[in-house]
Amino acid sequence: MPKDRSPTRIQKRNRATILEAALDVFSQHGFRGATVDQIASAAGLSKPNMLYYFPSKEAIFTELLSELLDTWLDPLRELDPSGEPIEEILAYVQRKLQMSQEMPRESRLFANEIVQGAPRMIEELSTDLRALVDETEQVFEAWMAAGKIARVHPRHLLFSIWSLTQHYADFEVQVQVLMQPEDPFAGAMEFLETLYRRMLAPQP
Fold first, then answer.
1. Which of 5-14, 27-36, 134-143 bottoms out in mean pLDDT, i.e. has the lowest?
2. Residues 108 and 78 in one domain
3. What is the mean pLDDT of residues 121-145?
C-alpha cells in the first residue's frame, strides 16, 4: 500500500479484514499450503484489490508474525522478579493457557512457522525471544539460589509450560474429541497448578 499519506478509515478496515482472513487461512493450511486466492476469498476482496494492500502472501504472513511475536512475549515480560516465585510462575502458566483458549489460530500460526524451520522469524527467535529467555533464566536461577523454588532446569521449565499450555490450541481437535463432553479448559488450570506447585515446592 502506498506510504505517501496516512491510510484512510476504509484502507485501515480493509487491511484488518485481510489480516483476519489470512490468520484463518494460515492457521489451517500453514504458509506453504495457503494461497493468495484463498486469503482474498476469505477476506471478501478481489485478488488485485488485496494485492494493493499487501504485495504478496509473504508480506501478509510477515505482518501477522510481527504482531504475534509481541503478543506471545508479553506474558513472559509480565513475570515479576520481586514477586512470590511460585505464584508468579503460576500466573504465567494461567496467562499462556488463557491465550490458547482465546487465540488458538495465533498459536497454530506460530507453531506452523516453527515446524517449518522458522524461515520468516529465525532472526526474532535468535534476538528478542533469546534475550527474554536469558533474562527469565536469571530470574529463575536467583529464585532457586534463594531456596524459593526447587532446583530445575530453567529452560526446560519454560519449554514445559509452553508445551502444556499451547497443546490445547495446537492440537485443538484432538483435545476436544478426547475430552468430550467435558470442556477441555474446565480443569486444565487446576491440573497445571497442582503439577507445578508440587514440582517447584522448595525442599526442606
1. 5-14
2. yes
3. 95
